Amino acid sequence: MTGDMSDRFLIIGPDDAPDTILLAHGAGGAMDSKSMVAASEALADVGFRVARFEFSYMASRRASGTRTPPPRAERLIPEYLAAVSELSTKGRLIIGGKSMGGRVASMAADNLHASGAIAGLLCLGYPFHPPAKPEQLRTAHLETLRTPTLICQGTRDEFGSREEVERYPLSAAIEILWLEDGDHDLKPRKAISGFSAADHLATMATKVAAWTGRLGA
């Protein structure tokens, strides 16, 4: 396994992996946040090459120390497309991200998939709605999504619990892995669920490996 930090990407995993997963961060956490590191390491452990990048607003936070709010997700699509273009890959590419990063990727996915640029979409903790605002759904484009998609979601995620999400009319292209008692970082309360955060990340990574095995070239 190798790890490399460049100005553009943080890369971990085998250089000769058949699949590369490109992940963008959530609204408040950088590409080297604890949850992003843990998820990336879990995916690398099962053989993926994982590349993370930051949107410009987050890079500006690092430089200035000022916690500026993120732009609207739609405005970040061009930055995601630029990252796809700039990332060097030898095999298939799966795009996605944590929370907002996965949402942005989902908005760009169908055009990229139709052109053959990506094989699938992976979302870790999709923000189906803002916390405590279940009426403000962010699912319209998910109803017609054509890209093969895997969403890994905690059952008690405040951005979309299992009880809520199972009522949504999502595209048949979307598969959801539910992680018992997981929160927005997929982390469970061990005393309640019997699972640890490491358990859920290992389950997530194993599921992603099986899912990508069913994807086309």
Characteristic terms for this protein:
217 residues; alpha/beta; Rossmann fold; eight-stranded mixed sheet; 7 helices
What is the fold's blueprint, element by element?
Blueprint: E1 2-5, E2 10-13, E3 19-24, H1 34-45, E4 49-53, H2 56-64, H3 77-86, E5 92-98, H4 100-114, E6 120-124, E7 149-154, H5 162-165, E8 174-179, H6 190-193, H7 197-212
Parallel strand pairs: 3-4, 3-5, 5-6, 6-7, 7-8
Antiparallel strand pairs: 1-2, 2-4
Helix pairs in contact: 1-7
Description of the structure:
- This protein has 217 residues and is α/β, with parallel strands linked by helices.
- It is built from seven helices and eight strands.
- The longest helix has 16 residues.
- The radius of gyration is 16 Å and the shape is globular.
Question: How are the strands of the biggest sheet laid out side by side?
Answer: 1-2-4-3-5-6-7-8
CATH-wise, what's the superfamily?
Alpha/Beta hydrolase fold, catalytic domain
Rg on CA atoms, Å: 16 Å
What is the CATH topology classification name?
Rossmann fold
Average residue pLDDT = 94
Helicity, as a percent range: 25-40%
CATH architectural grouping: 3-Layer(aba) Sandwich
> Can you count the helices?
7
Contiguous low-pLDDT stretches (5 residues minimum) are none
Give a brief rundown of this model.
By secondary structure, the chain is of the alpha/beta class. It has helices at 34-45, 56-64, 77-86, 100-114, 162-165, 190-193, 197-212; strands at residues 2-5, 10-13, 19-24, 49-53, 92-98, 120-124, 149-154, 174-179.
